[in-house]
Each structure stands twice: as structure tokens, then as C-alpha cells.
Amino acid sequence: MRVKELLPQFVMLLTMLSTTYLILGFYRVVLHFDKVGNAKHLDTTNKINYHTRR
């Protein structure tokens, strides 16, 4: 068993995985807020259009 040789690779793999997970989670949050912002923006635009049409 050469655990001492495998350990650094294992740690590197874990670090890479956690970094990827963090980046993906960050992007998901950003996209979610972007969608919410767009929905609110569309809602206000529709209201304005509704008022100008009347």
C-alpha cells in the first residue's frame, strides 16, 4: 500500500471537485437571480404597456 503517494492526488481531486461544485453553485445562484430580475422587469414593462394602451 502506497498511501503516501496516493494522498496528494486524492487531495488534489477533492479540491478540484469542490472548486467545480462551488463555481457551479455560484453560477446557478447568479442565473436564478437573473431570471427573477428579468421576470420583475418584464412584469413592470407589461404594467407600463397596459397603462399606456388604455
Protein architecture, described:
Helices cover 94% and strands 0% of the residues. It contains 1 helix and no strands. It has one helix at residues 3-53. The relative contact order is 0.06.
User: Distance between termini?
Assistant: 80 Å
How would you sum up the major sheet? none
Order of helices and strands: H
Mean pLDDT: 83
In angstroms, what is the radius of gyration? 23 Å
Number of helices in the DSSP assignment: 1
Characterize the overall form. rod-shaped
The tally of strands reads 0
Oligomer class: single chain
Task: Write a brief structural summary.
Keywords: Membrane, Transmembrane, Transmembrane helix. The chain is mainly α.
List keywords for this structure.
single chain, 54 residues, mainly alpha, 1 helix, transmembrane, membrane, transmembrane helix
